[in-house]
Design a protein that fits this description.
Helix content is about 40%, strand content about 30%. By secondary structure, the chain is α/β, with parallel strands linked by helices. The chain has one domain (about 1-215). Helix 1 (about 10-20) packs antiparallel against helix 2 (about 25-60).
Amino acid sequence: MLLKSADDNSKRVSLLEDLQRSPLLDSGQKQWLRDELMRLKKGIQGERESAHYLDHYFKDGENHVVLHDLRFLVNGEVTQIDHLIFNRMSIIYLLETKNYACNLVINEQGEFTAEYDHQRFGIPSPIEQSSRHERVLRKLLERLEIVGRTQKQPDFHHVVMFHPKAIIERPSSKAFDTGNVIKADQFPTWHQKFVDAFGIGAVFKSALNMRSLDTIKE
């Protein structure tokens, strides 16, 4: 079920649009604002599209709570999480959205490169970014004493979602596993495979930490 939707960023978009018309800015500053506005709009669009797929998939579910667009400050560290899904069995999915409708290349070292026509540029690893989110979120969960029934710490699983029209070129799975890098519309299939591969033993252990949906919401 959906517990938190994405925040309204319309005021931030309007502010950047208004700032571009300021006579006090030089051409370089206005170009920076245009680039920042483009990045913001693309980010909002990508997160909105990914949220659509997630909300539709989990809308009638009784085992998951979905939250979008979260910002945490823990011990001086700030983290911005696109999508967070809590499972009743102490499983947490951290989902990072990247709105690149391009040719995306991932090499054997786990480096990400985006290609648009004749332009080619590297992008920060969203897998590493999601791992940093986990580190901060773990600190928060420990502070709030959020654990399973057997005092088990939550299990984290990371998913990176790209634009449905992106073309993803991957290395061999032996060199670098990209099984958690998917297109946004593929999440239902990815999740079903994840559940199928979980195994009866793991399901039994996780069931010991089962919480009610109301407890997860709280």
